[in-house]
Amino acid sequence: MQIWVDADACPKPIKEILFRVAERRELPVILVANQPLRTPPSRFISFVQVAAGFDVADNHIVQKLEQGDLGITADIPLAAEVIEKGGHALNPRGDFYTKENIGERLAMRDFFTQLRDGGVETGGAAAMSQADRQNFANQLDRFLQKGCG
Hints:
This protein is of the alpha/beta class. The chain has five helices and six strands; from the N terminus they run E-H-E-E-H-E-H-E-E-H-H. Strands 3-2-1-4-5-6 form a six-stranded mixed β-sheet, sandwiched between helices. Strand 4, helix 3 (76-84) and strand 5 form a beta-alpha-beta unit. Helix 3 packs antiparallel against helix 4. The radius of gyration is 15 Å and the shape is globular. The mean pLDDT is 90.
């Protein structure tokens, strides 16, 4: 199993958790972004820079991801593609996207997009808290302990 990270928007504290997991579990973590990123020297951590453009990083992840791999993303359409391909998807706040909840998440995303396109101010996501970071670390750890990694 490999962990694929939609790294352009992934918060730094989440990347740091993933770097520690890669070393501790000797598990490949691949960050994909369209801008240069610094990663610690490690044989388990790699970085792929893709061309700039809409969904280029997402498309690379979906193309390379294999069944059973884990995708880290807050991008709901990308999460849906990861699940469709037989992977697992976890957002940086520690919530798993599943076959059971991805349809509802996509519908809510589309609803809020329509509101914003219509001029309604919907606000944004709350700032990432320490509790969010801890939830992510706990969910990732539980996932890996279940033998999924």
